[in-house]
Amino acid sequence: MAAYCSPTDLTNLGISPDALRSITDDQKNAVIAATSDEMDGYLGSQYKLPLVSWGQDVRLMCARLAVYTLISARGFNPNNPGDEQLLQAHDMAERWLKRVSDGSLALTVTDSSSQGPGYVAGGYQLSSNQQRGYQGDGTSCGGAFTGGRR
Fold first, then answer.
1. Ramachandran bin of 75, using left for φ above 0, alpha for ψ from -120 to 50, beta for the remaining angles
2. 123 has pLDDT over 50
3. What sign for the dihedral angle of Cα 124, 66, 19, 73?
4. HSE (CB half, 13 Å, CA atoms) of 64?
5. What is the pLDDT of residue 115?
6. Percent of the chain with pLDDT over 70
7. Is residue 25 classed exposed, middle or buried when 0-12, 13-18 and 19+ CB atoms within 10 A define those classes?
8. What are the angstrom distances between the C-alpha of 28 and each of 7, 23, 24, 53, 90?
9. Cα(100)–Cα(98) distance, rounded to whole angstroms?
């Protein structure tokens, strides 16, 4: 799973640093991860996940959604003009994601379909031409060990 923005992006793209002063980096990272998962629900209808690269638009929408979640947990007044802007930014980000999902808005991203055969997202794939004493089809970690003790 990719994190579509960073804690720094929350204040660079979303809100004043003072508004998030009482929120820890762990809390920010947790909300960014959850927001990125939410975005994958929309992005996955048009792109093969995980995304390999994305633009500032994806980063901005992630920051807006994450900031809204963080501030909502802390509490805000949607009738206050500053807080109303926060709600409007969230709603705009949700509309943006729906447009991406229904195909009416195309993004400049690199998705996993551009990776060659054998690509494993987020890690390495190991292979060997020597028998190791396991049964299985070579594509999973399943199978029984058939080697003996030496």
1. left
2. no
3. negative
4. 20
5. 65
6. 76
7. exposed
8. 6, 7, 6, 21, 16
9. 5
Place of tokens 């929350």: 10
Residue type at 66?
A: A
Residue 18 in tokens:
């003072």
Q: Which tokens in the block code for residue 122?
A: 């987020």
Q: Token pair for residue 34? A: 């959850």
pLDDT score of 32 more than 50: yes
Give which of 131, 132, 96, 109 is closest to 48, Cα–Cα. Answer: 109
| Helix or strand (DSSP H, E) at 67 | helix 56-74
Length of the chain: 150
Tokens at 145, concatenated: 């060990």
- As a whole number, mean pLDDT of residues 126-147 equals 51
